[in-house]
Amino acid sequence: MRIGIIGAGWAGAAAAWQLHKDGHEAIVFEAAPQIGGRARNYHSKLLGQTLDNGQHILLGAYTSTLAIMDELGLSPDKHFYRFDLDIYSADQRFRFKTAPLPAPFHLLGPLVNAKGLAFKDRFALGKLYRYLRTRQWQVPAGQTVAMLLQHTQQPEVLIQKLWHPLCLAALNTPIDAACAQLFAHVLRDSLGGARAATQMLIPLRPMGSLWAEQALQHAQIHTGSPVRTIETTANGYQINGHHLDGVIVATNSPSCHRLLQNLDKDNQNKAFIDSISHFCFNPIATLYLLPQHAWENPHPMLMLEEDLHGLQAGQWVFNHAALPDSDLGQVIAVTISYANRLQGHSKEAITAAIRQQLQTQSVFPLPPIVASELITEKRATFVARPHLTRPSTHTPWPRLMLAGDWVQNPYPAVLEGAVQSGLAAACAFH
């Protein structure tokens, strides 16, 4: 079959690869001039380098993404820096690190060697883990992460130093609004899995060219080719003059909503289309800094204490000089999830505030900065609130499927969710 894919992000690339394996022909339409979607390349003239549109980090639990890379002959160990979960504050006062032991003994690391936690706080860690495991990682419907933490009597130090940062990193939604069930799924497939699932992977290459290009190598790709309408035909569909047996819409939800509204001329599938219209979004920002010389900080990733109301909003800092063979050389990246508070402020003010944050909090002196680039993804992720209804892969139209991190899957808006949804959409054509 000839299957059209609208969108060449990670969901679309995964779908194209699966369709090729299943013997189908994929025709990909991408509105942007390049592939990658939410994990695309960006050439910074200010830094003179090709960057990601944001500093990404993956988990070892991202099994579908890593499996595709293996199939493509792209060894994850050559393209990522892999390390055991290590949440270490820039001021060196707090540390949560798993042990290099087989599961479940790797979880003894934070219980025995955690820094900045009293014994009762470490016991509370185990209480949350046992509660979720006993309930098979299911929580009451409608529960927020804050409610889950309160129910399991997590102390304030753990909420501030561990659960709040992890929730923002995974769901890009504050704990008082974030869905506890989605958070539990993330914990289940990381802390609740094998040691490798808990490990963290920092890309050493720009994500836009990491594997998506190879996954799309057998597809017919049309970049700079926005799709305005999907037309039905007697035996399929037509997109931009191409006759197709089926379609996978792998765009963001607002674009998908517009396409399906135009397709539903008789207004017969309004309820399904309405299920795509209620997503809200939170931004993520990344500040890239080019130092005069390599930052003498041996840690690839450190946690920052953010100002919840001001511009010192950095949450994690990545030192590429500490990453072996990173394409970014000595670049420093600071990530700001839930970056709503930055709106209305100049790049200069944000950059100055975060540089001051680094200088104040890090025990490693920050080198002089010669250039910087602030990149903000305004619709980085959907707001992962409880009771959020997400549409299924299948639509009311025959052989028309949906894919994307916002389509029904066990995860919040993470890249692994996009990949899994792309695979599921392609497999629907079996």
Automatic annotation (TrEMBL):
Organism superkingdom: Bacteria
Cited InterPro entries: Amino_oxidase, FAD/NAD-bd_sf, SQase_HpnE, Zeta_carotene_desat/Oxidored
Every Amine oxidase domain range: 11-428
PANTHER family recorded: AMINE OXIDASE (PTHR42923:SF46), PROTOPORPHYRINOGEN OXIDASE (PTHR42923)
Record's protein name: Squalene-associated FAD-dependent desaturase
Species whose genome carries this gene: Paenalcaligenes hominis
Organism lineage string: Bacteria, Pseudomonadati, Pseudomonadota, Betaproteobacteria, Burkholderiales
